[in-house]
Amino acid sequence: MAAPPTHSLVLSFEAARRVVEDHASRVSPTSHETVALLHSAGRILAEPVTADRDIPPFPRSTRDGYAVRADDLKNLPAQLKVIGEIKAGPLPAAAPPKLNPGETFSIMTGAPVPHGADAVVMIEYTSRQNERVEFAKEIAPGENIVAQGAEAKRGSLLLDRGTRLNESAIALAASVGKSRLQVFVRPRIAILTTGDEIVDVDAEIGPTQIRNSNSYSLAVQVQQAGGEPVLLPIAPDEPRRLRELIEQGLQEDLLLMTGGVSMGRYDLVEQVLAEMHAEFFFTGAKIQPGRPVVFGRTRSRGSGRLARSGASAPLESLPKYFFGLPGNPVSTMVTFELFARPMIEALSGMSPHPLLFLHARLKSEIRVKPGLTRFLPAILSGQYEDSQVELVPWQGSGDIAARSRSNCLLVIPSDREQIPAGEWIAVVPR
Ligand code: AMP
Ligand code: MG
User: Fold this and answer.
1) Ligand nearest to the CA of 191
2) Whose CA is nearest to atom 10 of ligand 1?
3) CA Rg value for the chain
């Protein structure tokens, strides 16, 4: 059997993340499909969406009130004659085309402001008697009106390729008449869990066996990142069958493995991949949990649908990326978030974005040994300017129950030994 790769490829969190981001910037999906707007949530846009007309298409009143010429309200109190009413929708045929000095239109929110008018006075600042309205306050030109094209000019770019479609992007697409959108085809992400002790959820279970939970957490995370999970059978800690299943996984666009990447005698994932002449970018990161995380690339045996951008090599030789995530369930979830997610997002066509952190005040002092960047299960609470965060007591990286009581990961920088209560500290919301 080939020697496993050297264990000196252990990078700092920042360096490991940079390596992943660098590779992620070089992959992209190649195919797209058209989906109905209602089925586009969470998908990645494969076409630019532009404004089909000015937005708003006419100067729009933002208030219920009176459309006026600001000049007419210079001498107060001012009285103007009401010459009509404009509501949202088509202008009444009988409405005068233009506002002249001394005149006003009653106008509703969302209605087109008539020619001649340059401001809208809120109804609250007026008093009306029959056809006359009295104004007690001046107004600046432009107030309570959104000018035609102020939000977007006709033809301008509203949503770029690579945008993840959320409610506002979908609303924007609807507002410019796009009932169907071109989105990238989801990358297929193989999930291979390893370990002699691991059994299926439904199986009869022995006293020392462990139910497979990682395939399920990963399937959820893969979907959230924009991929389609492809679950493989559980691999035993035996090199031949493990290799068969790894080769099967490499038929897909990316392979995620869990377990078998630590230093134990039966941790065979790296050995088998080394035998297959895989290239390793790192075989560990100075983090907790998840230190033994592996990232690399190998040659594909099959014909995945996704290609490296610009690659003209035949399909058989296209490289396939893989992650070996540690088997402890919290490590699996955390290392997915930190490293696998950006790669899957890139394969799904999403534009790159940095890992986002929130900040909150630490509730109780933390003491740790420096040297690792830690991402520990924690609870973010409080509200408004009073966000607080505290660690969830846990039994280490196998403790799924503690992770599920948490709502974020608290980040401890690798050079900190003691963090006093009250200090602002970074958290990754999850
Ligand atoms: P390993 O990384 O293979 O050394 O596994 C570390 C720990 O995670 C062991 O306690 C395993 O039993 C556990 N583990 C590995 N894979 C899974 C899985 N798919 N679901 C739940 N626990 C797992
Ligand atoms: Mg194992």
Assistant:
1) 1
2) 328
3) 30
Q: Spell out which residues line ligand 1, taking CB within 6 angstroms.
A: 193, 195, 197-198, 210, 212-215, 258-262, 264, 267, 326-329, 398
pLDDT of 314 higher than 50: no
- Given pLDDT bands bounded at 50, 70 and 90, which one contains residue 317? low
How remote is the C-alpha of 366 from its chain's centroid? 30
Residue 174 has a CB neighbour count (10 Å cut-off) of 12
Task: State the DSSP H helix or E strand holding residue 153, giving kind and residue range, or none if neither.
Answer: none
Q: DSSP string spanning 69-121?
A: -GGGGSSSSEEEEEEEEE-SSSPPTTS-SB--TTEEEEE-TTPBPPBT--EEE
How many C-alpha atoms does 73 have within 13 Å on its Cβ side?
Answer: 23
pLDDT at 6: 53
The pLDDT score that the predictor gives to residue 30 is: 82
Whether residue 248 is predicted with pLDDT greater than 50 in this model: the reply is yes
Average pLDDT of the chain to the nearest whole number: 93
Given a cut of 90, whether residue 305 has pLDDT beyond it is no
- How do residues 330-360 score in pLDDT, each as one tens digit? 999 999 999 999 999 999 999 999 999 999 9
Q: Whose CA is nearest to atom 14 of ligand 1?
A: 327
- Highest average pLDDT, of 86-100, 293-307, 401-415, comes from 401-415
- 259 CA → ligand 1 middle, Å: 5
- Determine the distance separating the centroid of ligand 1 and the alpha carbon of 13, expressed in angstroms: 22
Task: Map residue 373 onto helix, strand or coil.
Answer: strand
The DSSP secondary structure of 198-263, one letter per residue, reads EE-TTS---TT-EE--HHHHHHHHHHHHT-EEEEPPPBPS-HHHHHHHHHHHTTSSEEEEES--SS
pLDDT, tens digit, for every residue of 362-385? 999 999 999 999 999 999 999 888
**Ligand with minimal distance to 256 CA:** 1
